[in-house]
Amino acid sequence: MKIIRVKNSLEGGAIASRMIIDLIKEKGSATLGFATGSSPETTYAHLVEAYKAGEVSFADVRAVNLDEYVGLDGSHPQSYRYFMNEKLFSKIDVKRENTYLPNGIAEDLTAECERYNRLISTLSPIDIQLLGIGHNGHIGFNEPSESFIDGTHVVELSPSTIEANSRFFEAENDVPRRAITMGISQIMSAKSIILLAFGEGKSEILRAALTREITPHIPASILQKHENLTVIADREALAKFD
Ligand code: GLP
Questions:
Q1: pLDDT, the chain, mean
Q2: How far apart (Å, rounded) are the C-alpha atoms in residues 192 and 187?
Q3: Is 165 in the active site?
Q4: What single-letter DSSP state applies at residue 166?
Q5: Are 206 and 197 in contact (CB under 8 A)?
Q6: Atom 5 in ligand 1: which residue has the minimum CA distance?
Q7: Which pLDDT value is given to residue 241?
Q8: 147: Cβ–Cβ under 8 A, 6 or more apart, which residues?
Q9: SS3 label, residue 68
Q10: Would you list the DSSP string of 169-193?
Q11: Which residues of the chain register pLDDT less than 50?
């Protein structure tokens, strides 16, 4: 695991976006695994800047996201589809049909998970998977549980996740209780992974996930096994790292 200590999320985003841009330039195309939440926001802002400066084109990029809330369609401002469109897809030249998220309003959620599994098999391997980390160690929406779940699945969000994500909603009651998420094997099969963590609030979980035992009670701990993991974190998030 490579750890890059940065001053703040702006510098972290600049480094993560540079890794993505270099890959696209080198390959001419790429399959990118994207994440939502505040952690990747500066990465997306830098990607947009680089695109506007004519430095990179996303025309041959395929973008696949980790997760989506159940019950929110893409026009809902708190849906992850909306987030991705707003922060990135509508501001670069990626073809909309090459951007993929689970469909949170699918009538048959089991069939939707199967569709996403097939899609990921077709798109694989993901060249770079961007990740944030939840306060309880979740990646995507893989919540702490008794075992690591391999494929795309529907998950009941934990009370701490609902509370943490309520900051984006008018009331805690508005936060969806379920989500569809890519599974652990799908995340781990990415050729390289960038984990972003900023702020003191992530310090405990970052230490637990990356320096303690690998356990499904802390889903991000599985990342210790990945051969090409880059952690980009600020001093505050790394404060308890040993
Ligand atoms: C959400 C997302 C995760 C994200 C996590 C942390 O629950 N499903 O993919 O990593 O929140 O979010 P933040 O980066 O805002 O701390």
A1: 97
A2: 10
A3: no
A4: G
A5: yes
A6: 134
A7: 82
A8: 216
A9: strand
A10: SSSGGGS-SEEEE--HHHHHTSSEE
A11: none
CA distance 2 to 31: 22
Rounded to an integer, what distance in angstroms lies between the CA atom of residue 152 and that of residue 146?
A: 17
Q: List the one residue out of 195, 137, 188 whose CA is nearest residue 15.
A: 195
Compute the distance from residue 74 Cα to the ligand 1 centre, in Å: 18
Task: Find, among 133, 163, 148, the residue nearest to 40 by Cα.
Answer: 133
Q: What is the pLDDT of residue 242?
A: 67
Q: Which helix (H) or strand (E) holds 66?
A: none
Rg of the chain over all Cα atoms, to the nearest angstrom: 17
Residue 2 phi, psi (nearest 5): -105, 130
Q: Tell me if 150 sits within 8 A of 183, measured CB to CB.
A: yes
Whether residue 143 lies in the annotated active site: yes
pTM of the model: 0.97
**Rounded to the nearest 10 degrees, what angle do helices 41-52 and 80-87 cross at?**
40
State in Å: Cα 239 to ligand 1 middle: 20
- Helix or strand holding residue 9 (H, E): helix 9-27
Tell me the two tokens of residue 47.
């990607």
Gap between the Cα atoms of 211 and 9, Å rounded:
22
In angstroms, rounded to a whole number, what is the distance separating the alpha carbons of residues 220 and 237? 15
One-letter amino acid of 25: K
Give exposure, 27-59, as e/b (b: 16+ Cβ within 10 Å).
eeebbbbbbbbebbbbbbbbbbebbeeeebbbe
Residues 116/102, Cβ–Cβ less than 8 Å: yes
Rounded Cα distance, 151 and 60, in Å: 26
Pocket test for ligand 1, best of 64, 138, 161, 193 (most atoms within 8 A of CB): 138
